[in-house]
Structures are given as structure tokens and as C-alpha cells.
Amino acid sequence: MKIAFIGLGNMGGPMARLVLQAGFDVIVYNRTAAKAEPLRELGAKVAVTPGEAAARADIMVTMLADEAALRDILDGRDGAVAHLPRGALHIGMSTVSVAFSAQLAKRHADLDQAYLAAPVFGRPDAAAAKKLWVLAAGRADDIKRARPVLESMGQGVLEVGDDPAQANTMKLAGNYMIAGMLQSLGESFALVRKAGMPAAQFFDIVNKVFKSPVYENYGGQIAAERFSPPGFKMRLGLKDMRLVLAAADASETPMPLASLLHDRMLSAAARGMGDLDWSALGRLAAQDAGLSLEKT
Amino acid sequence: MKIAFIGLGNMGGPMARLVLQAGFDVIVYNRTAAKAEPLRELGAKVAVTPGEAAARADIMVTMLADEAALRDILDGRDGAVAHLPRGALHIGMSTVSVAFSAQLAKRHADLDQAYLAAPVFGRPDAAAAKKLWVLAAGRADDIKRARPVLESMGQGVLEVGDDPAQANTMKLAGNYMIAGMLQSLGESFALVRKAGMPAAQFFDIVNKVFKSPVYENYGGQIAAERFSPPGFKMRLGLKDMRLVLAAADASETPMPLASLLHDRMLSAAARGMGDLDWSALGRLAAQDAGLSLEKT
Amino acid sequence: MKIAFIGLGNMGGPMARLVLQAGFDVIVYNRTAAKAEPLRELGAKVAVTPGEAAARADIMVTMLADEAALRDILDGRDGAVAHLPRGALHIGMSTVSVAFSAQLAKRHADLDQAYLAAPVFGRPDAAAAKKLWVLAAGRADDIKRARPVLESMGQGVLEVGDDPAQANTMKLAGNYMIAGMLQSLGESFALVRKAGMPAAQFFDIVNKVFKSPVYENYGGQIAAERFSPPGFKMRLGLKDMRLVLAAADASETPMPLASLLHDRMLSAAARGMGDLDWSALGRLAAQDAGLSLEKT
Amino acid sequence: MKIAFIGLGNMGGPMARLVLQAGFDVIVYNRTAAKAEPLRELGAKVAVTPGEAAARADIMVTMLADEAALRDILDGRDGAVAHLPRGALHIGMSTVSVAFSAQLAKRHADLDQAYLAAPVFGRPDAAAAKKLWVLAAGRADDIKRARPVLESMGQGVLEVGDDPAQANTMKLAGNYMIAGMLQSLGESFALVRKAGMPAAQFFDIVNKVFKSPVYENYGGQIAAERFSPPGFKMRLGLKDMRLVLAAADASETPMPLASLLHDRMLSAAARGMGDLDWSALGRLAAQDAGLSLEKT
Predict the structure, then answer these.
(1) pLDDT(A293) > 80
(2) Which of A86, A249, B198, D226 has the fewest Cβ atoms nearer than 10 Å?
(3) CATH of the domain at D234
């Protein structure tokens, strides 16, 4: 089975490597060509255009940072959609809007191509360690076909419906929940610090009581005020909150916490934290409480 | 060692039983006397006034639903403070304000009595199963003296400082974080349901990705719309958000998420959900999204 | 001077009449043709397509309910843009997004057509009474050319810059401020009513102290719980909050109050108030406070 | 008629002068004695303690910065309450909590003294110019008795009920509305400035469309970034938002906008703006948008 893997960034790079290591015949494409070289050394073919990668694929995987980057890959004269064979399957793993995923589903259907949305939970280190969780939504036989590839990239595949856009809704809802955890960590730590206690002491309680790896990872970063290099940039988090709110708006679902998170991230971006890790919401909470930036 | 245990409600009842079963010599008091009977059968003495319970105690434990109830026990002619012997230790386990705990510390010190704040995390079923987490703050030798009693009531004792009020700050911060988890579950479930998917499907993802027993317990309740009987009443959650905001106000720590949670709980109370479990924040989110109350 | 006037709804209808009564040679177009009849009786010509109206105009005025309706008029084979003569001026008076207005400016420039954005403040009754305020942004000589037409429609023309999109930003900011006034009236009235006082008594104070016709008009509606027929629908207010937040997002300006207003209007729409006047934010505040809907 | 006037600060000073100039027989008291000297020169007697001032009064007016300052005056051995004659009337003009005003009403009733709550709208310059609005609540005959004194201090007296606490609710609701106006001005100005326009241009529209002296005064300050000397300190505004939320909490009235305003003011205080005028909410909005502090 021939796999085209497009998008070799922080996430896509390690994911493509896992697919390759699982024994698939892989051709890769990345806008910045240098990022393809490590994969070439591991045995991947390297395409010069998205269209070239797509042209002979049974399955095409795309993993780009945002919708605009994905559009660049898919559209145009040497775009992936135009060259993807009839009957081939596009697995879209990027975090994109619900509306865009729905449009893409229709577009592929019109061209007799198959399409699954399969966004993932996990950061670059989880991707490298094959610890991602993969959500998959689409036609049952397409999910069946995709399974070996998806399983090669993570610790589990969660099937979430037969409409691809459903996976995107759930991915966005999940990111929104993580952002909520960041905000609550940030505010708590600020409260505790202003009461004269080290954030780390409260963090210890959080780990004991809530037992979630998400609190553990991010709480550690906030307590240590370590926001760079970013695992996931504030600006990308802001983009996701925008997509959550767009989905909420379209379905008439008020989400005041999502609005709050959007405001906070927008403020973080405006105040120069757009390229820090999104856990810098904790720094923002500390700054708003008048705390200096020194570690506690 | 003689232990006075005052407050035998949903939480205090099972906690007192554990202390008794650990072999301590226990005298109990509860305003509604009937609740003391099961403990009498297990071997506890039963006092007629708080003062009687306190009068011969080495350690007095108090576990009341709120500050007003605690004041009733402590103050007045037959109140516990006046009768507690010099040198005896009061372990305050109720969730009360930071300011009140600080005042109480001073008051006991003036009377040559010792005082620890030791609020707990966990609901009535966790109390019954000895699964509570106990935070303890106060003088090191008081914590040492209290340890056997505290350990008899939970799965672990976390020491969080030498100023009792610090334990109260941390307890409140923890409850605020749980409330944030409830709100984000509620909004997510509403979003997912309005997109035509069952909440249970997203809940499954939450459990896989976040792996927290807190999400698991409350998410199950919200997905099943099971808010009664309450494990922890919305009205008590509202009280706690008020105490969090009072602490935030006093220390000049803006906590916009805590404010949001307070508003939501106040709205829930005003709309008739004050006596439901506080996870009914999920019902409120569904109602605000125009969702009917039927299960999904 | 030949004027094409497109869009004869609640606002456009009375505005077109004023232009006609000022002595201009007017041709009108409306999708629902019946609405053009009263203007035909007053002497206007009636076009069958937007293109027909635009084809011989010196100045084309558009006043549609939203961006989608405006796009329908402008685009396509019989669309207004394709038929508007070179050198002719399009005065866009609809409330549209900042981004759309900027695109439209570019599009007209590419076709050697002129474009002004001239959104208005005021509701249908103000339009009928020639009490609108008109914001105008664009090239100085275009504003000069447009002035007699704009002045025929309102009590004053406020020039706000040479970039058309600036007028749209200011119009949206103004609507956001009105929405903020509605929300604060709603919350205040709920507070006062729950304290046992009639909303009308507080409303009297508002009028004395704040002296604004905006408070006076809307406060009267909220106090009387009179939300239908709508002067400006909740759903249109919601659309405007969406456009404000889009502008805020694009320029990295956190606007937490705008987010709150968006959430409230979304909740109002989801709870069945989308077609009421947007002052029904006051009803929403009352409902959230558990107040019955009876008048006070 | 003998008038005791207690509290001669920014507001009380000019108010006492007006009472004196209206021909009443006035005895004043102020903690910082120097502030009484200008009034002595105008003919007032000066008391050394609150009790001395109260002792021979027919009517006692109190105008203090906050509840704590008022308690200092009223309570204790030389306090005003203990010395106020039976039958004499206390007019409380300070902005205090609804709960405190209710307690005070009861306390005076128990001592056969009369009590009116009569808080005012207006800042020090309005006080000096006799432009205050006075709210008055209490027994009808007490209001009648107080009227000549109240009228000497402002442009009008608004009777708002027979329960003194009602005037306090309305005063707080009014201050909340002003704060909402400040926040919306701040956010709008930030949006407009980030879109490349001067705030002053939008401010001009606000004045034309909304026509409120409140927008005009505060908008001018924000546009000019003139927050010092303060007419009304941020810290006092924060106190008032706290009192609004306490009233909202007690009556189960969710006020999300009041919560937002409280958060913003708390953030302003934590970031060093507590002693600026409360219109510095506009500075906070600009800072959060990443705008430098230079004037526009």
C-alpha cells in the first residue's frame, strides 16, 4: 500500500517516521524540503510537489499547522486533490474547522475520492513516542482501510462517527478542555502565590487529586515558568479557540468559557506571548495579578 | 487519645466511623441527634452539646457544611471553643473561608489551644471508602500529633504549610478547579450534542485522553443527566466560589474563570437547581443551548 | 443625478423615500418586489434586477440586512457591480464586516468605480423621521459627491476617515456599545426587581443621571417587557457581535465585554428569542435570575 | 434646624459648604481636623468627636469614603449613634452595602432614631457645582423633613422607596452601569486605535449618538489618557463592584457584566492603577491590546 504523507513539521515529521517504520511504502512532501531529508534517509521517497506525492497514493495523509497551509497543499495546479487517484483515501489529520472539513468531504465525494478526518491528541514528544490518540470519523470501510496506518501512529484509534466533521468537532472540544485546564492552573497558581505559597505545593495536590497527565505536563511547565521552546504555540491555541467558537456559533451553543479562553489568548498574543507555549496562559494570569515573572 | 468528632453529615458521618474503627476513643456530637446513633452502636460516646464533646478531648475534629454551621458549634455558652482544654488540638476539616480560618487560628492561640486546618478532597462515597485526600496546615508538631487521626480518614495526608489558612486557600483553589472541569464538560457536551453526536462518545475520548477520575465521575453524571441525589450540592459549590473570590479579592488576584463559575452557579440556583449536584452545571449549559432535557 | 437604491427593508424603505423626496431621480430594486410599490407611487422607477438598477446610476446606494444579502445583490450575472458604470459611486450603508468592506473597496477600485462606506446609527422609526446619523469614510471627493444624498437621509453626516473600512469598524464599535447598554440595563433591572422594587423606578434614575436617548428608548422597552415587533432583531445583533469580534480578532484586541455580549445573544437565540428585539437581553437577564416574565 | 455634617472629604467638603450656604446651623466633624477649617471660616461650628457633632443635631448627615470609615464614625464611646438624640434623623449619604444599610436602619429604629439612605450620583466637581443627584429612601415623613437639606446639595432629589436599603441598591446599580460604560469605551477605543484611527474620532460619534454627559466626561478622560488626579479612585470603584456583587449574590441575581467589571478593576489594582481614576479601565484595555501608553 502506497502512502503519501504531506506535512513534516513538529507533528507530521515524527508521525511520518512511524508510518515508514511500520513498513509502508511512503512518499513524503514538505514545503521546506530540508525537513524531508531525515525521512529520505529512512527509505521514504521525496516528492517535489504535493501533486506528485498524491498521484500514486492509495492513502494520502495530510498533517499541516493550520487551514491555510492545508489549502495550499490541496489546491492549485500541482495540488494534492487534483492528482489524488479516484478511489484513493485522504486522511486529514490537521486541526481544522468543522465547516472546512465538511466542505472537503463534499469535494472529495464529488471526485470519487474517499475522505476521513483523523485529528490527534498529543504534542510533538507524544508523537515521537507513538503516544498520540487518533480520532477517526468517516465511512466504516474507509476507517477499516485506514486503520493499519492510523494505528502505526499512536496508542489508539477512537472511532467517533461516520461524518468526518464530527471528528473535528470533538478534536476542537478536546483542545478547548485542555485550554480550560491551563487557565484554571494559571489562576490557581496566581492565587496561591499571592497568598505566599509556592505554586509547586499546590501543583503537588493537583497531581494527587486529579491524576491527569495533562495537568501534570502543563502544571509543571507553568510552575517552572518554562514556556519556550513551545510544544504548541499560543497562536495555534488561539486559532483553535476561534474554530471552537465558530462551531459553537454555527450550532447556537453558548460557550462562555471558550469565549474567556479566546480573550485570554488574544490578550497573550497582543502582549507578545504569541510564540510561547500556550501554557503561558499561566504567565498571563500571574502578570494580571501583578506578580513579577521570577520563578517561585 | 480522646477524640471529639463534631458534625456527622454526609461527610462527617463516614469520617467519624473511620476514626472510631481505627481504635480511637471517640465522643461525637451532631445537631440532629439521630445521626449520632449509628456511631453510638459502633462504640462512640454521644454528647448532648458541643461543649460536652470538647470538654475532655485531646483532639477535636469539626466537619460542618459551612461557616455558619461551624460558628454555631464553636461559639456560645455550650460552644466547643470555650470548653476545649488548654493544649488540646482543634482540627478544622470544614471548607471555610481563608479569613475565617485565620481568625480561628488567632482565637485558639489566645486560649493556648492548638489549631490545624485540614480540609479534604473527595465526596461522601470517597469518605466512606477511605479515599479522601487530607490537606493539613499548621505547626509541625501539631501535624505530627494529628497524623494518626488524619491518616485513619483518607488515602493520604498532604502537608501544605505552617499557617492553617494556607490549607483553606488550597482547598478552595482545588474546588475551583473541579468546578472548571464541570463547566468545560458541560459546554463540550452541549456543543457535541448540538452537532448531532451523543455526549457519551465525547466523554469516552475525555477519559482516554485526560485520564482523570474527576472527569470520569462527573462526566458520567452529566452524560447520564443524573444530578440527584446530590453528592455535593450546587448551593455548596456556589458558597465555595464565593469563598474563592473573597480570597482572590483580598489578595488582588483576578480570577475571571472563578467569576464565570460563580455566575453560572448563581444562575443555576436562581433557576431552581440549587439542591441538585453541582455537576448540574452541565444541565445549565444544555438549557442555555436550547437543548431539551431528554437524555442523549 | 441618478440614484440607484437597492434594498427596501425596514431601514432601506424609509431611507429611499427620503432620497426621493429630496428631489433625486431614483431607481429602486428589492428582491421582494412588492416593497418597491410604495416608492413607485412616489415617483421612483423600479428595476427588475440589481444590474438594471445599477446600469445607469451616478450613485448606487445599498442597504441590506446582512453581508449575504449584499453579496447576492452585488455578484453574479445581473449583479450590481458588473453593471455599475465606470466612475460611478457605490455608497454601502449596510452593516458589514470590516474585512468585507476592505475587499469591496479593492474590487471597485480595480473596476474604476468609486466606493464609500456609510453605515448609519438609528432604528426604523429614526430612519422614517430623518433622524439617522450617517458615518462616511472614503476619498474626500467621493464624500463630497455623496453628501447631498447622505444628508437627505439623516440628521447629520460624520466623516470618519479616508479608508472605507474605518466607517465599518466604527459602526460595529457603536453597536457593541449599545449592546453593552442593553446588557447593563438588563442586569440592573433584574437586581432591582429581585430586591423588591419596580424596574421603572430605577429606569427613572437612569434617565435623570445618564440622559441618553439610547437608554431611554431601550430601557422603556425592557421595563415594559415589549420586545415585539422588533426594531432590530436579536439575530442581527448577534451577527454584529460576531463582526465586532472578527475585527477584534484580526487586530489582536481583546474585548471581553464583546465576548460576553456575543454569548448572551447566542444564548437568547438558542432559547427562542432570535426574532425578538435585541433589547430582549433584558428578558434573558430576568430569566437567568429566575424571575417570571410578568411585568413589574 | 441644627445639622451635624460628618465627613469632609472630596465629596463631603463641598456638600457641607452648600448646606451651610443654604442657611442651616451646621456643626461639622472630620477625622483630619484641617479639612474642617474652611468651613469654620464660613460659619460652621467644628466638633472634636463624632459624638459631639451628633449630640445636639436635629439631622445628622454622614458622607464617608467607605463602610469602614463610616463604622469608625458611628460606633464606639464617642461615636455618633450613641450621642444622636432620640427622634433625630440620620441621613446616610455614603455608598455602602445594601446589607449594612439594612442593619443601620434596624439599629436606629431600636434607638428611636430616624434613618434615611440618601446616596448621590456625581463626582467632586459636580458636588461643588450643586449638580449632584440625590436618591432618598426611607419613611415618607423623614424624607419630607430631610428634603430642604438634601435639596441644598444637588440638582434634584429622587425618592426611591420607603426602605432605606433600596436607595443603596439603586446607587450601586447606577455605579455598576457607569463602570460598564467605562469598560465599553475602553474596549472600543482600543479597537479603533488598533485599526489605525484616533480614539477621539470615535469619541465624537459616541457623543453625537449617545448624548450622555457620562460618556462625554469619561470618554474625554480616556481619549486624553488623563487618569490623575482621580475624581473617583479605581479602588473605590472596585469596592462598589464588590458591593454590587454581594447584593446580587444575596438575591440570587447573576450579573456577568458586574463580574467582568470586578475582574477588570481587580486587575487594574493589582497592576498598579488602584489610585488612578476608575476610567483607567480604558488604560487597562489598551495595555491588554498591546498598545503603548502614548496618547492618540
Answers:
(1) no
(2) A86
(3) 1.10.1040.10
